[in-house]
TrEMBL record:
Pathway: Cofactor biosynthesis; thiamine diphosphate biosynthesis; thiamine phosphate from 4-amino-2-methyl-5-diphosphomethylpyrimidine and 4-methyl-5-(2-phosphoethyl)-thiazole: step 1/1. 2-[(2R,5Z)-2-carboxy-4-methylthiazol-5(2H)-ylidene]ethyl phosphate binds at T133, T134, T135, G164. CDD domains: TMP_TenI. The keyword Transferase applies. This is Thiamine-phosphate synthase. The keyword Magnesium applies. InterPro entries: Aldolase_TIM (IPR013785), ThiamineP_synth_sf (IPR036206), ThiamineP_synth_TenI (IPR022998), TMP_synthase (IPR034291).
Amino acid sequence: MRTVGRLHLITDTRPGRDAVAVAAAALQAGFDTVQVRPEDAVTDREAYELTVRILELCRRHGAACLVNDRLHVAVAAGADGGHVGADDLPVAAARRVLGPDAILGATARNAVQARRAVADGATYLGVGPAFATTTKTGLPDAIGPAGVQAVVEAVDVPVVAIGGVTAARAAELFAVGVHAVAVVGAVSTAVDPGAAAAAFFTVVPR
Ligand SMILES: Cc1ncc(COP(=O)(O)OP(=O)(O)O)c(N)n1
Ligand SMILES: Cc1ncsc1CCOP(=O)(O)O
Ligand SMILES: [Mg+2]
């Protein structure tokens, strides 16, 4: 199984966004994982074609490619794994779909959810929202670095913090022990996504 990366770009497929160009810039700047996260309006065919393009970029950079929610697309495209949350396949079922060697991320907000996801086969935990975000609507209140730290201290698998993550805030999150951060808006909405991504590379603990 490929190891879990430290800097995860999550694709922004909202209208007007160029997910492939942003992924290329982030990979060039040092991001080591791209999670393809198709909006609900994106068809499976579109999600598959996007994943194939992103996977080719990831392979060129030695990076991991994951697919959010739609694990059949991950398997069909030959991606490195997927990510599931409360509205997706249960973690144990997702593990059966992906097989024992794939990377499987699961969303958790607290220690109880985290331990359950690990017991059911999660490779890493996506924990947040760490800070308030407008990228995804309907989220519960942000849990802050302290809430993320509570999960870090509850499990022995990598924690990937998500939600309102900027380069400055990433330093706070690494300081409480996260393995990685996942980013959408701070890179995808930047005037220069490559420069925005490069700012994260400087805060990853070596
Ligand atoms: C790294 C990471 N953490 C959390 C999420 C959220 O996934 P999920 O709960 O399935 O919500 P949607 O992304 O499907 O809206 C994630 N995608 N990645
Ligand atoms: C998919 C998801 N899950 C929790 S927050 C979030 C979106 C994160 O986007 P941003 O990095 O722009 O806050
Ligand atoms: Mg989901």
